[in-house]
Specification:
Length: about 250
């Protein structure tokens, strides 16, 4: 009697495991289907765990893709999407990449321009045809070094600079806006006429004012959030095209 009930218990446990596995597979399949459809995880029908799963998947998809495509980071796809939409790199002879490490944006820029200058606080491994500056962009010393390297002006300034986040969104927004304003100042003072500027920002209140300021200098200034940028992040990009002069 005891033996029968023991084997019965074992069978029931096995069945339960198989049923749980099938249910998980079914959920994963539904999640993957939703992800394939549009990459959105603000879908109200999805459970919190499904949303978490999708966020991880989006991150992993681009990280895996970056490895396969030979890019140093998944950030590559953000610039590729920006360029697909606004064509900022086509015809550019010189590009300055601010906050460049580990270097995927510079890898892309170097396919278009003869002269690419990559700047970051963090030292980067070399990239063919890319000049590197290791330094803090907020310091005068660094700015002077950068400006001295582009006496003939610049065609495109791209900035993916991001401060270390504190988790307090208003604080992070302000620190990010500080960097974005410095990047914009640099672009306005150094871009050649007809040049372009693309810059990462964190949404949080001051971005409209920033857009208005840029509109004084560029023909068109648009916000753009690439598909490869996580939907739950406050990150977005401002793309200012056809510089009219300072
Ligand atoms: C998101 S990562 C850039 C990724 C890069 N676009 C790529 O494709 O590999 C942001 C970078 O901004 C840099 N950064 C942040 N503040 C900076 C500053 N004040 N001066 C220079 N670099 C800065 C960080 O060191 C970090 O490497």
């Amino acid at each position: 009697m005891t033996e029968i009930s023991e084997s019965l218990k074992k069978k029931l446990a096995e069945r339960k495991t198989v049923a749980q596995k099938k249910a998980k597979e079914k959920n994963d399949k539904a999640d993957r289907k939703a992800l394939k459809k549009n990459g959105k995880f603000d879908n109200k029908k999805l459970t919190e765990s499904s949303k978490r799963y999708l966020r991880r998947q989006v991150k992993d998809i681009y990280s895996d893709k970056a490895r396969k495509d030979g890019y140093r980071s998944r950030a590559a796809y953000k610039l590729l999407e920006i360029d697909d939409k606004f064509q900022i790199l086509k015809g550019a002879k010189s590009v300055v990449d601010l906050g460049a490490a580990p270097g995927s944006w510079s890898q892309i820029a170097a396919r278009f321009a003869d002269k690419v200058i990559a700047l970051d606080k963090i030292e980067m491994d070399g990239i063919r045809n890319v000049d590197m500056i290791t330094g803090d962009f907020t310091t005068d010393e660094c700015l002077e070094e950068l400006e001295s390297m582009c006496p003939a002006g610049i065609d495109v300034v791209i900035s993916d600079m991001a401060p270390e986040t504190s988790g307090i969104s208003s604080h992070d927004h302000l620190r990010q806006m500080g960097l974005s304003e410095l990047a914009a100042d640099f672009a306005i003072n150094n871009l050649n006429k007809g040049g372009h500027f693309a810059c990462k920002i964190f949404v949080g209140g001051q971005e409209k004012e920033y857009q208005m300021m840029l509109r004084k200098y560029f023909e068109q200034v648009k916000f753009y959030k690439p598909e490869s940028s996580r939907k739950d992040s406050r990150e977005t990009f401002i793309v200012a095209t056809n510089f009219q002069g300072a």
